[in-house]
Design a protein that fits this description.
The protein folds into two domains: about 5-125, N-terminal domain of MutM-like DNA repair proteins (Alpha-Beta Barrel); about 140-265, Helicase, Ruva Protein, domain 3 (Orthogonal Bundle), CATH 1.10.8.50. Helix content is about 25%, strand content about 20%. It has six helices and ten strands. It has helices spanning about 5-20, 40-45, 140-150, 155-160, 170-180, 195-210; strands spanning about 25-30, 50-55, 60-65, 65-70, 80-85, 90-100, 100-105, 115-120, 255, 260-265. The radius of gyration is 20 Å and the shape is elongated. It starts with a helix and ends in a 6-residue tail after the last strand.
Length: about 270
């Protein structure tokens, strides 16, 4: 699934092509996404200017005169900026045609992505309860210290909870915990204030590096420019079970945690 760095990379990729442009047509070829696309509402955006391409957690937000288009890439979705005349391929579900002659095209083989509309995105049910952004002010060691105090849940599961920390998916949770030298199974409340500060810095650094590298390609993810992300080449532990730790040389371990694979080094992480 595209995680925060992949979504942020996509946002940065489409931004120069969409901001300031008017929507010439909004064509829904397949409305059966995760939630059915409201075709009638989509028609109200035709002729509107796109003022901003934003992001909240893993949601892309295109702010227009008529409201905000909320896009989620799901597990396998991608957005491409293409000439409007470009023939569609399999799984191209939505075209946002611009007055520039280009189209923002949404492709999603598994159809777990979504296109929703809101007059006030901050009040939308999918967005209003989200936690602070790890790349913005408000997320630091003190914040982690406060939210971990009474929680017995494993720290990896806590930092993947979007109601507490947004945008830290499975890949980056394992990587951040390695960088912070903290075991994924540690009870959240067992972390010291110093460890919380270290983990907050590790989360921010991991996500920042991933954004600069264009995200991480594991299966389906491709950026807005059609190129894959390259952060996979810099992964310390994720999908490296049995391979030597890049720091100590001991084998990286793997176990299942919350129905997701967790990777860690038993020597480096305490």
């Amino acid at each position: 699934m595209p995680e925060l760095p992949e979504v942020e990379t996509t946002r940065r990729g489409i931004e120069p092509h969409v901001v300031g442009r008017r929507i010439h047509r909004l064509v829904v070829h397949e409305r059966r996404l995760r939630w059915p696309v409201d075709v009638e509402t989509s028609a109200t955006f035709v002729g509107c200017r796109i003022h901003r391409a934003g992001r909240r957690a893993k949601y892309l937000l295109l702010e227009t005169d008529a409201g905000t288009l909320i896009l989620h890439l799901g597990m396998s979705g991608s957005l491409r900026v293409l000439p409007t005349s470009t023939p569609r391929i399999a799984h191209d579900h939505v075209d946002i045609e611009l007055d520039s002659g280009q189209t923002l095209r949404f492709n999603d083989p598994r159809r777990f992505g979504s296109l929703l509309f809101a007059t006030d995105p901050a009040a939308h049910p999918l967005l209003k309860g989200l936690a602070p952004e790890p790349l913005e002010d408000g997320f630091d060691g003190e914040y982690l210290w406060k939210i971990t105090r009474r929680r017995k849940v494993a720290i990896k599961q806590l930092i993947m909870n979007a109601r507490l920390v947004v945008g830290v998916g499975n890949i980056y949770a394992s990587e951040a915990l390695f960088r912070a030298r903290i075991r994924p199974r540690r009870q959240s409340r067992s972390l010291t204030r110093q460890e919380c500060a270290r983990l907050a810095r590790a989360i921010r650094a991991t996500l920042t590096m991933a954004v600069k590298a264009g995200g991480t390609t594991l299966r389906d993810y491709i950026g807005a420019d059609g190129n894959p992300g390259y952060f996979r080449q810099k992964l310390y532990v994720y999908e490296r079970a049995g391979k030597p730790c890049r720091v100590c040389g001991r084998p990286v371990r793997q176990f299942t945690q919350g129905q997701r694979s967790t990777y860690w080094c038993s020597y480096c992480q305490k």
